[in-house]
Design a protein that fits this description.
The protein is an all-alpha fold. It is built from two helices and no strands. The protein starts with 9 loop residues before the first helix and ends with a helix. About 0% of the residues are buried.
């Protein structure tokens, strides 16, 4: 008669747990790269700010 399995053995559970900890540490400071839209918005904001400063100095 076979005994039903109760899950992974302890050593395998520890390996999986350490893998989750490692993945969490790796993802903690991860930031997506800016998209093209983000870069364009930032560039237009910089141009707008520069033009506003230029017009303020002219008036």
């Amino acid at each position: 008669m076979r005994v039903p399995s109760i899950g992974l053995p302890l050593d395998e559970r520890l390996i999986v747990r350490e893998g989750y900890r490692l993945a969490e540490r790796m993802m903690r400071n991860y930031h997506d790269k800016p998209t093209v839209t983000d870069l364009l918005v930032s560039a237009f904001q910089d141009v707008r700010r520069s033009l506003a400063t230029l017009f303020r100095t002219l008036t």
